[in-house]
Design brief:
mainly alpha, rod-shaped
Length: 263
Amino acid sequence: MFISRSTHKLFLTLFLSGVLFLVFGTPVSANTLTVDDCIKCHVLETTQVAEDGAAHQMAINCLDCHVEHRPMSANNIPSCAECHVGTDHYTLNTCNGCHNPHQPLKVTLTGELKMECLTCHSEQGEEMEANPSVHSQVSCNYCHADTHGYTPDCMTCHASHSPEMAVTDCATCHAAHQPTLLEYPSTTANNLCAACHVTAFNELQATTTKHSTTTCVDCHVNQHATIASCNDCHGEPHAAGIHSKFPNCGDCHNTAHDLNNLQ
């Protein structure tokens, strides 16, 4: 026997209504459901909201979002943007890729994400754009993997400059979002510089001049590759004629790390 599409749809609606009648005891519409009814079928979702719902538990309830129930509503799942507005992040249309609306603050990062992250973390994006490196070529969750807020150790990917250096030493000179811009505080210890500049460090250790008591950052101030002029500390200690004939201090005094070898 042929059954038309409209007749089939009517039978399906009547069947579902019967199922809902057996569950809830009365024919179900948007007007008869209560929040207490939701847990009768949606145990997982209501449990998640109760445990990790954040504002979705405290400020609203199930029926504030799901205002109707299927089959009376073809789509009873609202757009997040109906409530969440005001920032670039809320204009994204891929909310469910990271957020479970029943546990909105338990963010799981899936796929390769960058543009999505920068809608909140614009400062980090600006740092990477201004200082291109390998870090700026990968997705944000290449490093901040799987779970929002996770920060890896540098040595997960990078080898230490020396066996003496610990993970906590990396941030003394490097910022993760601009790793090639080396800046360091005035308290930086010489042994951290020695990890890369071993010859200069050994010469400075061996000298018997007053330079042996200085730190690397006394001369190489604040930013890597900064080289001070001898005149910054010493002025012009010799007669004008000597400075005129030998304008480069290193012509006589070798390097600042090895003043013992007077030329």
